[in-house]
Specification:
Helix content of chain B: 10-25%
Distance between the termini of chain A: 12 Å
Number of helices of chain B: 8
Shape of chain B: globular
Radius of gyration of chain B: 23 Å
Radius of gyration of chain A: 22 Å
Oligomer: heterodimer
Number of helices of chain A: 11
Number of strands of chain B: 11
Number of strands of chain A: 1
Shape of chain A: globular
Structural class of chain B: alpha+beta
Structural class of chain A: mainly alpha
Chain lengths: 315, 249
């Protein structure tokens, strides 16, 4: 699949934003941070800023962005529509949560409930994003059971790293929270590693023989393509990445996304003050780079069934 | 509504494509382009048509495959277009309701006025049947020539999809695959018509008729050179022997 930058940015940015909202609700419920206008403004600017930037960027790849509102109508059948509805609905409790935190400077009663509902709505939205991909039978590797959990756990890892870093700079919480973030980052990459193992070992779902039905005669190979230059299908679905590059990029993703941030956040929990903030900042920067590589690979490595008609042997 | 019809009609209009007969002339693809660039989904934009890297929207593409090895291998011409599936994932993933399956005859269509060009339907289709029009910003696909098949202004013999009307080899058939007694259903029955990629679970309506089996060749070592080897005398004709000697000089 062609890795479109708008979709990569959307899934990583909004994922981190929604993950951050979940952690903010946890911090509010546990009294880890004090509700002040200053901490609230900083946290919501980062979380809702990323969510909003991601959602807006997802409209950039549309042929008709001005009609994007129509996408809220088909939630009965379409995961993309459900994601849109969930994303908009999540703003309601999120803005109430923000109102309590920033204006009334409280996590009491109903304001805390708003926070908890925000966290749930954020998780639902990220799950819908994952389901958009996991529901596409034409891209068999994406239907793997780990795909939706990976979207969720990466949102929690990146959101946690980000929001811990914001607070570490402006209103340091107990440094031990950094360990929770480190565990989440490690869990995300462990699950991703399992996904990579599974897609490498997965048996082909469809073949050039089943796509053409000519397997009854024998092995099928493309003799002559229908056209001499690329068409839309080849541009969009035909993107292929060499296996050796994929292997190398997986290592790069693991080094940037896990090998740097996990020790950084573990160490951040041992110290306090400027050192914790600096370690967290380094960790979050490396994690962001690692997740971008991971997300690029998610698209680039996936083979679409339509490519079987253009010379791919199996998907 | 991108939910599939609750009570799909009995009618399932579709194509039956005979891979035994198709000669790979691309006439169906060209006539499809010709009709549809002025039809329901017009225009089928071409970009850079005379440049080094032309790209354009076509509803029908003709691939050529080699199947099998050696003397028993076959070259098969393979037209590919929308299969108007009974359970089309391209329809249910559509967030706006632009993609739909007609209840009356099962044709899968796109409403160009509500399509936002998110391209998800093309991702959901395992058959690569949908092509995005970069200039129009909407998805386009085979309409089974809805502007021909029910068009009273055309003579009755022309009320078939453009690809069917133009096929010089009569390799393409159009009809109601929901009616077990229709001509197309009988063809499928007689010839063992099959679904492409049934494992995707989309239940395509269009069927493909397999190339007929041929006597298995045992002369697996026969090459073009063997066949053109000069006849070395004894043909029974002095004239032919002379021709053979003359040509062998």
């Amino acid at each position: 699949m062609h890795p479109a930058y708008s979709v990569i940015f959307f899934t990583t940015a909004s994922g981190a934003g929604y993950g951050a909202l979940v952690w903010m609700a946890i911090f509010a419920a546990t009294g880890t941070v004090t509700p002040t206008a200053w901490t609230g403004l900083a946290a919501f600017a980062v979380a809702l800023g990323l969510v909003t930037a991601g959602l807006l960027s997802s409209t950039f790849h549309l042929g008709h962005p001005e009609r994007a509102w129509k996408a809220f109508s088909q939630w009965r059948s379409s995961w993309l529509s459900r994601e849109g509805v969930a994303a908009v609905l999540a703003y309601v409790p999120a803005l109430l949560f923000a109102l309590g935190w920033i204006v009334f400077e409280t996590f009491e009663g109903a304001w805390l409930i708003a926070g908890i509902v925000t966290a749930l709505a954020a998780l639902v939205t990220v799950a819908c994003t994952g389901m958009i991909y996991a529901s596409l039978r034409a891209i068999p590797r994406w239907t793997d059971v780990t795909v939706v959990p990976i979207y969720l756990v990466f949102a929690l890892a990146s959101g946690g790293a980000l929001i811990f870093t914001v607070f570490a700079i402006i209103a340091p919480p107990a440094p031990e929270w950094a360990w929770a973030v480190a565990i989440m980052i490690a869990a995300a990459w462990a699950l991703k590693f399992i996904y990579w193992q599974r897609i490498d070992a997965a048996a082909p779902v469809a073949t050039a023989e089943s796509a053409t039905g000519l397997g009854r005669i024998g092995r099928v190979s493309l003799f002559e393509a229908p056209h001499t230059s690329d068409n839309y299908i080849m541009r969009e679905m035909g993107f292929r990445i060499a296996r050796k590059h994929a292997a190398r990029l997986r290592i790069i993703a693991l080094l940037l996304g896990a090998a740097v941030p996990v020790p950084a956040f573990l160490a951040a929990g041992l110290f306090s003050g400027v050192l914790t903030a600096a370690l967290a900042l380094a960790g979050v920067a490396a994690l962001a780079a690692g997740i971008l590589v991971e997300r690029w690979l998610f698209f680039a490595e996936a083979k679409h069934a339509a490519s079987l008609f253009y010379g791919t042997d199996t998907v | 509504m991108t939910s599939l019809p609750n009570n799909p009609g009995a009618k399932k209009l579709g194509l039956v494509i005979d891979l035994d007969i198709c000669v790979g002339c691309h006439a169906c693809a060209v006539n499809c382009k010709e009709w549809n660039t002025g039809g329901h989904s017009a225009p089928l934009t071409d970009e850079n048509p005379y440049g080094n890297d032309p790209i354009g929207v076509w509803f029908n593409r003709v691939h050529t495959y080699e199947a099998g090895d050696g003397a028993n291998g076959r070259t098969v011409h393979f037209p590919r277009s929308c299969l108007h599936c009974e359970e089309p994932a391209c329809v249910t993933v559509c967030p706006t309701g632009a993609s739909y399956k007609r209840e009356s005859d099962g044709i899968v269509l796109v409403n160009a006025d509500t399509c936002i060009g998110c391209k998800l339907c093309s991702w959901a289709c395992p058959y690569g049947a949908r092509e995005y029009d970069y200039a129009d910003g909407v998805m386009k696909k085979c309409t089974l020539c809805i502007d021909r098949i029910g068009n009273d202004n055309l003579p009755e013999r022309d009320r078939v999809p453009a690809c069917v009307s133009t096929c010089p080899a009569s390799a393409r058939h159009f009809g109601d695959l929901g009616d077990p007694n229709s001509e197309v259903s009988r063809l499928v029955e007689e010839r063992g018509g099959y679904d492409l990629m049934p494992e995707m679970g989309m239940k395509p309506v269009n069927k493909y008729l397999p190339p007929r089996t041929r006597p298995v060749s045992t002369a697996s070592n026969t090459t073009a050179q063997d066949i053109t080897e000069p006849v070395s005398g004894g043909s029974g004709s002095r004239f032919l022997d002379w021709v053979d000697r003359a040509l062998s000089r």
